[in-house]
Design a protein that fits this description.
heterodimer, A: 100 residues, mainly alpha, globular
């Protein structure tokens, strides 16, 4: 059992998901719904299915490409996610425009 | 002779009649439970499932799990870690929503939820255009 990998994937996903749009939606739906338990189970099922698809797609990719190239792609991917999260102006202005 | 000693204990035999009472109670108890089953939870479940599933497709969490499982040799562990994290965060979200429900009126919450979901759809539109 690789506890390191388990812990890393837990922490990464946990931090990525805090304040994310799906958590946002879960707060909104359970606040206005009469059955928060059903909202919880719906949320969990959707998230598990989505991450299962992600894991299966990742597994498929690892067969096709060498590890080094995948690490480079992973680095670029994580950098892109970080840049997207840290970009303050473009995100908020676009949101308020479209929400109106 | 012993039979004659029985009649005094007869009044206590009235007790077994109570199951009829409890059956009546059970009937009246089952009614709201049945209407609950056919009505609310499944609608809430399916609409939540669809909303969250659509919001999560191609999201940073999914990309992160994709990259981690591609990088590592054990996708099962990545899935287990991601699954635990997702359950924890959605539990936090639902608890937060319930806490808000005790503080604000349903009308306010409906408006807030509508605005929130509009924001989510705006975020998704932004993702589609810019990512």
């Amino acid at each position: 059992m690789d506890w390191h990998l388990l812990g890393i994937s837990f922490i990464t996903v946990f931090l990525a998901e805090i304040g994310d749009k799906s958590q946002f939606a879960a707060i909104a739906l359970s606040g206005s719904s009469k059955s928060p338990r059903a909202v919880f189970f719906g949320t969990v099922t959707a998230l598990l299915l989505a991450s299962l698809l992600g894991v299966l797609a990742g597994e498929g990719v690892s067969v096709l490409f060498p590890a080094r190239m995948l690490k480079a792609i992973a680095a670029i991917g994580f950098a892109l996610i970080a840049v997207r999260l840290l970009w303050p102006n473009a995100n908020s202005s676009e949101e308020s425009e479209e929400a109106l | 002779m012993k039979l004659s000693t029985l009649p005094p204990s007869l009044p206590t035999l009235e007790r077994p009649i109570e199951p009829a009472k409890s059956a009546q109670m059970r009937q009246s108890y089952q009614k709201p439970a049945a209407s609950k089953l056919e009505g609310l939870p499944w609608k809430a479940f399916s609409s939540t499932f669809l909303t969250i599933f659509l919001a999560e497709m191609g999201d940073k969490t999914q990309i992160a799990t994709l990259l981690m499982s591609a990088e590592s040799q054990s996708p099962g562990l990545v899935f287990a870690g991601a699954a635990a994290a997702l359950i924890a965060t959605s539990l936090l979200g639902v608890l937060l929503g319930r806490a808000l429900a005790t503080k604000f009126s349903p009308k306010t919450l409906d408006t807030a939820a509508g605005v929130c979901l509009l924001c989510v759809s705006a975020m998704l539109c932004w993702d589609v255009v810019h990512f």
